[in-house]
Here is the input.
Amino acid sequence: MFLIGAIANGLEAFVGGLIGLAFKSRVSDELGDFLLKGQGLCVVLVGVQGMAQGGSVIVATLSLALGCLLGFWLDIDCQVTRLGSWAQRRINAAFEGSERLGSFSEGFVSATLFTCTGAMAIMGSLQSGIQLDHATLVSKGVIDLVVCIPFAATMGIGVPFCGVSLIVYEGVLSALAAVLGGLLSSEVVAEVALAGSVLLFAVGTNLLKLTDLKVANMLPSAFMPILLVPPMQALGLL
Here is the structure.
């Protein structure tokens, strides 16, 4: 079932939020940062495992080159940041004057933006939908669990409910990927998985604070094999 990854991710984030509320006075930002770096190592592992499954270096190289050019031109990272800022302003304006609802909205929106607007959510949903491989979303769920603990400890009751947003958002992406996956050849799926694994590796190095890559601007790279593989097969290059 292609929704397993999205459901697992949402539940893990919800549990993390509950833990943060339960241990509100004992969770420090330093602890949360340390745990997050540990999960960064796991994301690197997921990326390496995906790359080890093989694929064409030529397709991966071209996909990254073209995808990065397109993503840089569109400036996806900036658009995502603007969307998050717009959503936060609208929520703050809607609940202005209500301390209880304002507190809920701050935690809910902040946690939702962090957990939903990342390359790992998109790549994990693609893998769940196309390959029925939920490892990335489950791994991401552990990261979200860790992140939601300090979030909930500082921002309150709204944080656990980002799990609902995750299930809806990643569930829709997984469903679309499942429909798309039925139209793609196994070769294309393998190359999409390879390009996505490279991006996951980049996410992991960012979490470890070894790099500061705008991975969102690289997201088009994951879709480039859909365009590149058929003509390269026709020309006998694969």
Observations:
- Residues 4-234 form one domain.
- The first helix runs from residue 4 to 22.
